[in-house]
Design a protein that fits this description.
Layout lengths: L9 H31 L4 H36 L6 H23 L3 H38 L18
Helix pairs in contact: 1-2, 1-4, 2-3, 3-4
């Protein structure tokens, strides 16, 4: 068994991934309804019925996910940061989710249709790509840990992409 000093507990992962799945699914179904109405050129019955409900679920899941992301910062990032393990992809992922939060806010509260539409496109694009970003971070971290375990658990002399030495 590989050492997993930075891995979140099973319960923590279950809450985080469940909220992420709810967030992704509610956003995806809302977007599909919006696209269906746009393609039809008129309101689509199922979309009109479900879009308001999906938006409430999506907003609530987003708030809960951001709180849980804060616990990831306090537990996972705090332990992993000094080792430099997966720091680049982790920082990128945190930035990704913060940009998602800002663009999600902007979809609701930015004034002007042009800005709102542009902001909405960024939010949807980032949201659709988010599972790949999360999977990339997790898989990259597992690869680094396997590589370290094979080399006797010590840090390689030459860091690979995504591995940065501890801050001094």
């Amino acid at each position: 068994m590989l050492p997993r000093p930075f891995r979140l507990s099973r319960r923590h992962r279950a809450v985080l991934y469940s909220l992420f799945a709810l967030l992704f699914t509610s956003g995806l179904i809302w977007w599909l309804g919006d696209e269906a109405a746009e393609e039809a050129g008129k309101p689509v019955a199922w979309a009109e019925l479900w879009k308001p409900r999906l938006m409430r679920v999506h907003g609530g899941a987003a708030m809960a996910f951001l709180v849980t992301l804060g616990t990831v910062l306090a537990v996972h990032v705090r332990r992993a940061w000094p080792s430099g393990t997966n720091r680049i992809s982790g920082t990128g992922l945190i930035g990704w989710f913060l940009l998602q939060a800002v663009t999600g806010y902007g979809v609701l509260y930015f004034v002007g249709d042009g800005l709102r539409d542009w902001n909405g496109q960024i939010h949807v694009t980032l949201g659709l790509l988010a599972p790949a970003a999360v999977a990339g971070h997790v898989l990259w971290g597992k690869w680094i840990m396997r590589r370290r375990a094979r080399s006797g658990g010590s840090r390689p002399a030459t860091p690979h992409p995504g591995e940065v030495g501890p801050l001094r």
